[in-house]
Amino acid sequence: MKDQVLPFEKPVVELKQKIAELKKFTSDSDIDLSSEIQKLEDRLEKLVEEVYGNMQPWDRVQMARHPQRPTTLDYIQEIFEDFIELHGDRLYGDDEAIVAGVAKYKGTPITVIGHQRGKDTKENIRRNFGMPHPEGYRKALRLMKQADKFKRPIICFIDTKGAYPGKAAEERGQSEAIARNLKEMAGLKVPIICIVIGEGGSGGALALGVGDRIHMLENSTYSVISPEGAAALLWKDSNLAQKAAETMKITSYDLKELNIIDEIIPELKGGAHRNIKEQAKNIDKVLHASLQELISLSSEELLEKRWEKYKNIGKYTTLSS
Amino acid sequence: MLKDFFSKKKKYATIPREEAKQDVPEGLMQKCPQCKKIFYRKEVHKHLKVCPNCGYHHPLTAWERIDSLFDENTFVEWDKNMISENPLDFPDYAEKLEKDRKKSGLNEAVVTGKGKINGFPSAVAIMDSRYRMGSMGSVVGEKIARAIENAKEENLPFIIFTASGGARMQEGVLSLMQMTKTSIAIERFSEAGGLMISIMTHPTTGGVSASFASLGDFNFAEPGALIGFAGRRIIEQTIREKLPEDFQTAEFLLKHGQLDRVIHRQEMKEMLTTLLDIHQPGGVSE
Ligand SMILES: [Zn+2]
């Protein structure tokens, strides 16, 4: 598949094209342009640093939504062995916007769950663009409880624009499904590690997000409302999404600064989609370290630390009366 | 959802007074937004702000709710002086907080504390939609979580009246994480055997309906309350069809199995009293 170019990375792509053209030209003719090519390649190196080393929040939003961005299933395939996908919530249906199953991680049995976007239109329709209905969250919860029973750590990949805003979703209790996951995850006696790999859209992301560790890929986002939604509410203009992306503080760097997430997982220059295997290695490193820290804790310690972690999130002042 | 709330809210008669008491000036008239009949304000207030003609439930302020439930002079407020910061340096947020503080006489969108309901000691959190539409930022989350922890410490039942447009945008992900904080507090309280009763009032949407509002051992609502996750307009745009008139009302949720009961305001105190009585220590020994 041809790489899709985001607006901010255009200069890099254009320069690369120019270099390729020159190279082709020299090989087809007798003129030697190697010194010119060398100059351009030096410039390219600097440009890459400049463009990818200086990404703005809106650039990251676009990167997080990149159609070629690796998904939960991509990472499952790279990071785990013996993955068996499991289906259905036993109440209503099977929501393909969430995938879940059992697997092994470096020999340790685990349960892995994640939002799942499609790679093309057809798959996106089947997976509802990664926007779950209540049955998706209930499937996730069913398998988290199974993990709890068999003392398997749980790994969640977060990647959704949000819970699906539909009629049927409301009728079947979208709010209740999300709320229940938050409460039940709080009490699971096994380590839970959450990794935001793309978009972390509001409550729909949070319903897989009550972790002992929360990590974010460098170019992923986590927000209470989409930049477009925020712009529409704030300035009655969804075209100001770029500005909202800055104001709302939704990048991995913002969330690290707000002490909400534990670690930023570095991305490859140009984004995770440049090389899934390499990106998976970066995730694997952080995941492995987190799991090592967490499995040494007793279940009482684990639950107490989980409470402490979230209890301390929030900024307020108490006036002296 | 937020839009719906705005447009409806204008029709409400509000009483912008600190710890508003029921002494409404004589002669002031009030039009019911549902049946359009005009009543003396005082007459409506005598009925706990329920329309004497059609039963429309006007929003209660937090202190009106407290007066309607608690035995006289039993209510003790917690964390009254906790106020919001502007952690994201969000434009105009500080001014908006200040404006709503003046308008409502409240320091934030929830009042927490304990008191007695027909003699039964209870911890409560009561949201007030006049303050930033009852939205949940750090302070609302912290006050509710603390109230639940206090209830756990003091072995009290926990009752919450919700009225909220959801998570507060101006505090970004900090607001979102209050959903988690309050839900973990509820899990710990529940594990310790605590009784939680949630009563959803107009409106209860977004991040609040998707966290503590839905997590009671009993989930009730007031008649006609708007309750839902996503806003009507967003849903209509997404599915490209018109939604039924009663969509996301308390009655709609009851019909779809999402609520235990819809309770009329005038029966609320009695219903809570009976439930508190049923949950008195005793029962089957372990
Ligand atoms: Zn009326």
UniProtKB/TrEMBL annotation, chain A:
Q: Which SUPFAM superfamilies match?
A: ClpP/crotonase
Q: Which keywords appear in this protein's UniProt record, sorted alphabetically?
A: ATP-binding, Cytoplasm, Fatty acid biosynthesis, Fatty acid metabolism, Ligase, Lipid biosynthesis, Lipid metabolism, Nucleotide-binding, Transferase
Q: Which Pfam families match?
A: ACCA
UniProt superkingdom: Bacteria
Principal location: cytoplasm
Write down the EC number: 2.1.3.15
Q: Which reaction does it catalyse?
A: N(6)-carboxybiotinyl-L-lysyl-[protein] + acetyl-CoA = N(6)-biotinyl-L-lysyl-[protein] + malonyl-CoA
One GO biological process this protein is involved in is: malonyl-CoA biosynthetic process
- Keyword field contains Cell membrane: no
Instruction: List the Gene Ontology MF annotations in alphabetical order.
Output: acetyl-CoA carboxylase activity; ATP binding; carboxyl- or carbamoyltransferase activity
Pathway assignment reads: Lipid metabolism; malonyl-CoA biosynthesis; malonyl-CoA from acetyl-CoA: step 1/1
Chain ranges of the CoA carboxyltransferase C-terminal domain: 43-293
User: InterPro entries in the record, alphabetically?
Assistant: Acetyl_CoA_COase_a_su, ClpP/crotonase-like_dom_sf, COA_CT_C
Q: Indicate where this protein resides in the cell.
A: Cytoplasm
| Cellular component GO terms held in the UniProt record | acetyl-CoA carboxylase complex
Record note on quaternary structure? Acetyl-CoA carboxylase is a heterohexamer composed of biotin carboxyl carrier protein (AccB), biotin carboxylase (AccC) and two subunits each of ACCase subunit alpha (AccA) and ACCase subunit beta (AccD).
Q: What is the role of the protein in this entry?
A: Component of the acetyl coenzyme A carboxylase (ACC) complex. First, biotin carboxylase catalyzes the carboxylation of biotin on its carrier protein (BCCP) and then the CO(2) group is transferred by the carboxyltransferase to acetyl-CoA to form malonyl-CoA.
Q: Which family does it belong to?
A: Belongs to the AccA family.
Q: What name does this protein carry?
A: Acetyl-coenzyme A carboxylase carboxyl transferase subunit alpha
UniProtKB/TrEMBL annotation, chain B:
Q: Which residues form the CoA carboxyltransferase N-terminal domain?
A: 28-286
Q: What would you give as a GO molecular function for this chain, any one?
A: ATP binding
ZnF bounds (C4-type): 32-54
The record's catalysed reaction(s) read:
N(6)-carboxybiotinyl-L-lysyl-[protein] + acetyl-CoA = N(6)-biotinyl-L-lysyl-[protein] + malonyl-CoA
Q: Name one GO biological process term.
A: malonyl-CoA biosynthetic process
Entry cofactors? Zn(2+)
Q: What class of enzyme is it?
A: transferase
Its pathway? Lipid metabolism; malonyl-CoA biosynthesis; malonyl-CoA from acetyl-CoA: step 1/1
Where's it found, cell-wise?
Cytoplasm
May I have one GO cellular component term? acetyl-CoA carboxylase complex
One protein family per Pfam: Carboxyl_trans
Cofactor notes: Binds 1 zinc ion per subunit.
Q: Which ranges form a coiled coil? A: none
Q: Which positions carry the signal peptide feature in this UniProt record?
A: none
**UniProt-annotated binding residues for Zn(2+):** C32, C35, C51, C54
Q: What is its EC number?
A: 2.1.3.15
**Keyword set, alphabetical order:** ATP-binding, Cytoplasm, Fatty acid biosynthesis, Fatty acid metabolism, Ligase, Lipid biosynthesis, Lipid metabolism, Metal-binding, Nucleotide-binding, Transferase, Zinc, Zinc-finger
Oligomeric and partner information? Acetyl-CoA carboxylase is a heterohexamer composed of biotin carboxyl carrier protein (AccB), biotin carboxylase (AccC) and two subunits each of ACCase subunit alpha (AccA) and ACCase subunit beta (AccD).
Q: Which HAMAP family match?
A: AcetylCoA_CT_beta
Its biological function?
Component of the acetyl coenzyme A carboxylase (ACC) complex. Biotin carboxylase (BC) catalyzes the carboxylation of biotin on its carrier protein (BCCP) and then the CO(2) group is transferred by the transcarboxylase to acetyl-CoA to form malonyl-CoA.
| Name by which UniProt lists this protein | Acetyl-coenzyme A carboxylase carboxyl transferase subunit beta
Q: Which species?
A: Salirhabdus euzebyi
Name of the encoding gene: accD
